[in-house]
Design brief:
With 1036 residues, this protein is α+β, with helices and mostly antiparallel strands. The strands form 5 sheets. It has a 16-stranded mixed β-sheet that branches. A hairpin with a 2-residue loop joins strand 17 (563-574) and strand 18 (577-578). The longest helix is centred in the last third of the chain and has 67 residues, at 721-787. It is flat. 33% of the residues are buried.
Length: 1036
């Protein structure tokens, strides 16, 4: 609380004010007078409102403020803390004093404990505890409202209206007035002055007091009366006129202002009303009639409804929470008016002039009294004797109704005791003062009612906290997403039969019976240990001999052979924090090995759409981030287009069909050594041990784009393997020597060009020097002639003689041999580039011509898919897999949690490499430009190794991946505790849906023995999925 007598060093808080307010000054309040504090930085017309803003800034609340148009700003009441944010330490600290009172209320043989400290109870006891807390909170708040004027007769009338299906609302409203009372002239004593006389007697000066005076100022004081008229009413339905007055009072005070007669406050100002609907509250009450004189609270939880998940997460408790949170906000608003807004008016009277003694009562002190009132809303369990529990299983650990009555009586006693204390402290209500014991009691009860609501919300939250604590103790740790993913890896091995167990996505790039050239994996970062872990996918090897085709340019398409794998990845996402958020495609090449990585999407039954490509060799490692884009679930899509027009629905369906078809992610690995052997005409495995030759070949293809025909063996097929390799090595050596000669020729040519440019600059300098010498020589000669006695004027016939003399001077400065060298250089430049320097360009022309010849001879681009190719009719169409999954999700995913997911590569790649054999590993980032350059190099090499599509790619592995994300709205623990859902069963069902669709088998053929019966308990529809296809296959 702000002490009125001591100024506070604090800058004014910036407040958005209407026109006429001049806020924003940063002057310290400590250096100002009380009058200046009221008027600091404000216009005279708004001094009353201005001080209100300053006072509210100092007390920390803005409340309801008048605006220029007469409207008001909404009351700024801090909302209650979310009950999901339960803090056990704070909760124990709040209820510590209440627990001490419990030990005094009950006899010394009883020692009830908090639910958090009691483990000897059942799960149903938690439901009973939630009902107990709600009912005792209803009773405690009824005791508080009784002190606000809601007595039994009024309560009975309101209850009858609710029974007739009418609503009941509590409203608090207040009206403030400011009236001019009188104008007086008063005398104000000013500073006292003293006058001294001095006399001199020789060297001695004597000083003595002569007179003493004081200045008296006459000022005018303007007396005002500030009054408040408030009322607390209950009304039924929307009929505000038919209101029931619960509490109300009018009070006023006078204060004086000197200086001017401007009105410090609006003449009449009506605050916006604060309302709360208590219809739900009255529905829970049972008022005793003539036969039954006892009033009871009849709140209960229907545990048989579908929305009843936990003792906390059910419609009954949620409605109770909503009511008590609204009641708390209303109670805080009522108390805030007296302790903040009205108190700011009291501070205004203190700062603006004289005030009466009753205004010094600080209502803030009343707020602190709420902590001394007993709150009976406590989640307590009483320990029971173990023998008694064995005898009667129905014995409940909850407190009895007699204990509840003792608690409620103690609450009423503590409230009445504080009311007596307030009567001794504050003036009585009939004295007409602005603040009386009536307002103090109203403030105290409102804050007590807010505490009851807070204790109820914390008590309900403690039930979930108890469940969370028990689960943590049972498991031994707080379960994270990485722990859950680790469990799924273990669990999948027990769920599926051996051939269908999901496997980590880690593959070797190798030929049969050969050492791997490298590895390919998709890894997710483990949030706990920071280590990359391979993802787990359902894998099916596609036995299909129909070739696929890889277009590398508009004119070249390459046939792809090799193994093909279909992978399905089921991710999990808990509350938006997916464990698989940092996913990378990782490819590593071994020393003296190489392969090519091609990334793209499947564009049709036999098409691969290339997006990225890179060559990896000699311990290169590439990390490519994979980004996930989750599409709406089938149910969400269907619900979204339900109210669209037929044209709009067709558009949306066509677009979704495109999204699903393009969500098939493809990864192609190409082994380079076997393809080198094929394009060079060498036998199988002939380059396995030829490391130097393989490196030279790749260098010629990648760096110089040498046509493969210049290196291939074209002799007799019966020649031995060694002779074939030597022939290819001879071709490589010849080309390397030719390249070295071409490099030397280019270097010599560059040197000649540099020399020629240097001599050309020298020639230009000489020509400039000749002109300069001619001009300077002519001037000197003319000067000498003019100095002679027989000098004659310069005439036209003298100019040729002058030029001849200049040339003689120039010949002396520049030698004749230098001029001849310039002439020779000009002749050499005119002869053009030597033939050796154009050798490489001729090779590129030959390569381009050979490709063109192939296209012309065959009549179509090499490698083009024939129109009658059976691949279009009989090939396995990967693009249909997402559509089949979408249909399965719509049929079996009743929770609408499985979302189709698109995979695409990120923009920033990371490459790790060794510049030489002995240098340490270096790392660099590959942006868009670097990725494009790597792709061009890889596709150029591919074009050379396949002779522009004339040869197929034999040794390849195509990995096709589709993904789906099971999204949970909350974290793992919240899913288990709050939703009462087992995420293991949900992920199990999602994976079985995907696995059954991918393998085209019924679930009963995928799971291990004994698991089908367990699935029937929580997912019976899975057992019928594809059952007909399985029976038909068995019959065949």
């Amino acid at each position: 609380p702000l002490d009125v007598g001591s100024p506070r060093r604090q800058r004014l808080l910036p407040v958005h004010s209407p026109p006429g307010y001049l806020l924003g000054t940063k002057r310290s309040l400590a250096s100002t007078t009380e009058e200046q504090k009221c008027c600091l930085g404000m216009s005279r017309q708004r001094r009353g409102h201005a001080f209100l803003l300053v006072a509210l800034a100092l007390t920390g609340g803005l409340g309801h403020l008048p605006t220029a148009g007469g409207s008001v700003l909404p009351n700024q009441v801090v909302p209650p803390r979310s009950i999901s944010d339960f803090n056990e330490h704070i909760f124990r600290r709040k209820v510590s004093s209440a627990l001490a009172a419990v030990s005094r209320i009950l006899d010394n043989t009883r020692s009830p404990r908090l639910n958090l400290d009691h483990e000897d109870h059942s799960y149903d006891d938690k439901f009973s505890l939630a009902e107990f807390l709600t009912n005792i909170a209803l009773a405690a708040s009824l005791n508080a409202l009784d002190r606000l004027g809601l007595d039994e007769s009024k309560l009975s009338e309101l209850k009858s209206a609710v029974d007739q299906h009418q609503s009941v609302t509590l409203r608090f409203s207040a009206t403030e007035t400011c009236r001019f009372v009188d104008e007086k002239e008063v005398e104000i004593e000013g500073r006292q002055y003293e006058t001294y006389e001095t006399t001199e007697k020789g060297d001695i000066i004597e000083e003595k007091k002569a007179t003493r005076s004081r200045v008296v100022n006459k000022v005018k004081e303007y007396h005002w009366s500030f009054g408040v008229d408030y009322e607390l009413i209950a009304y039924i339905g929307n009929d505000n006129a038919n209101k029931m007055l619960l509490k109300g009072r009018s009070g006023s005070t006078e204060f004086a202002i000197s200086g001017n007669k401007n009105r410090p406050r609006p003449e009449v100002y009506t605050l916006p009303s604060r309302e709360v609907d208590i219809t739900w509250y009255l529905k829970q009450l049972h008022l005793g009639g003539d036969d039954d004189a006892q009033n009871t609270c009849q709140f209960s939880i229907d545990r048989g409804t579908e929305d009843c998940l936990t003792p906390r997460r059910n419609s009954a408790v949620i409605d109770a929470e909503k009511f008590f949170m609204s009641l708390r906000q209303w109670s805080d608003g009522v108390s805030s008016y007296f302790t903040r807004e009205l108190r700011s008016r009291l501070l205004m009277t203190v700062g603006r002039g004289k005030y009466s003694s009753e205004q010094t009562h600080d209502l803030i002190r009343v707020e602190s009294m709420k902590d001394t009132l007993f709150i009976p809303v406590l989640p307590l369990f009483q320990p029971t004797d173990e023998g008694e529990v064995n005898k009667t299983k129905s014995l409940s650990p909850l407190l009895s109704s007699a204990d509840t009555t003792l608690f409620l009586n103690e609450q009423c006693r503590s409230i009445d005791a504080k009311f007596v204390e307030l009567l001794d402290t504050f003036p009585t209500a009939n004295e007409g003062t602005l603040v009386s014991s009536e307002e103090a009691g109203l403030t105290l009860v409102a804050k007590h009612c807010s505490s009851i609501c807070e204790f109820f919300c914390d008590g309900i939250a403690s039930i979930e906290g108890m469940l969370r604590s028990q689960l943590t103790r049972a498991v031994g740790k707080e379960i994270s997403t990485s722990d859950f993913d680790e469990f799924l890896r273990f669990y999948y091995g027990k769920l599926f039969k051996e051939p269908y167990v999901p496997e980590p996505f880690v593959y070797s790039v190798r030929r049969p019976d050969h050492y791997p050239d490298g590895t390919l994996s998709i890894e997710a970062k483990d949030a706990g240990a920071g280590l990359p872990v391979p993802i787990v996918t359902t894998t099916r090897k596609i036995e299909d001999s129909t070739p696929m085709y890889l277009p590398i340019s508009a004119a070249t398409t390459i046939e792809i052979k090799g193994d093909r794998y279909l992978h399905a990845w089921v991710r999990h996402d808990f509350g938006g924090s997916s464990y698989n958020s940092g996913v990378n495609l990782v490819a590593r090449a071994r020393q003296f090995s190489s392969f090519m990585l091609v990334i793209g999407t499947i564009s049709g039954p036999g098409g691969f759409n290339t997006q990225d490509a890179i060559i990896l060799q000699n311990k290169d490692e590439i990390l490519i981030p994979l980004l996930m884009e989750q599409l709406p679930t089938p149910k969400e899509f269907k619900d979204a287009i339900e109210s669209l027009s037929p044209e709009q629905q067709r558009f949306a369906k066509a677009f979704r069909d495109m999204q699903l078809s393009t969500s098939v992610f493809g990864i192609l690995t190409i082994q380079l050594k076997p393809q080198l052997e094929a394009v060079l005409g060498l036998p199988h495995d002939s380059l396995t041990k030829e490391i130097r030759l393989t490196q030279d070949l790749l260098s010629l293809f990648v760096k110089y784009q040498i046509p493969s025909d210049l290196l291939s063996f074209d002799g007799n097929e019966d020649t031995s393997v060694a002779e074939k390799i030597n022939a290819v090595r001879s071709h490589v050596t010849s080309l390397q020597e030719m390249i070295e000669d071409a490099k030397k020729s280019e270097l010599e040519e560059e040197k000649r060009k540099a020399d020629m440019a240097k001599r050309q600059r020298l020639e230009e300098d000489v020509m400039e020097a000749e002109e300069d010498v001619v001009e300077r020589g002519y001037v000197k000669a003319m000067g000498r002639r003019l100095n002679r006695a027989d000098a004659v004027p310069l005439t036209e016939h003298a100019r040729p003689q002058m030029m001849m003399a200049a040339s003689v001077v120039a010949d002396e400065m520049v030698s004749t041999s230098g001029i001849q060298e310039f002439g020779e250089m000009r002749m050499m430049a005119a002869q053009g580039v030597p033939e050796e320097a154009t050798h490489l360009r001729a090779q590129k022309d030959v390569h381009r011509t050979s490709a063109k010849t192939l296209t012309t001879e065959q009549g179509k681009p090499p490698g083009t898919v024939p129109a009658s190719s059976p691949g279009h009719g009989n090939a396995f169409d990967f693009t249909q897999v997402p559509k089949q999954l979408d249909q399965s999700f719509e049929e079996l995913d009743d929770a609408a949690a499985l979302e189709p997911t698109k995979i695409r590569t990120g923009d920033a790649w990371t490459k790790k490499y060794h510049a030489t054999l002995l240098t340490p590993q270096a790392t660099k980032s590959l942006g868009k430009d670097e990725q494009k350059e790597e792709k061009h190099q890889a596709l150029d090499l591919l074009d050379a190794l396949c002779k522009s599509g004339a040869l197929p790619l034999q040794y390849t592995d195509l990995h096709v991946m589709v993904a789906a994300t099971h999204s949970f709205d909350k974290s793992i623990v919240d899913t288990v505790i709050q939703d009462n859902t087992n995420p293991i069963e949900k992920m199990e069902k999602s994976l079985l849906i995907v696995s059954s669709t991918i393998n085209d088998l019924p679930v009963t053929e995928l799971v291990s023995e004994g698991r089908a019966e367990l699935l029937g308990h929580h997912s019976p529809a899975l057992l019928e999925f594809k059952k007909d296809e399985g029976e038909a296959r068995t019959t065949e």
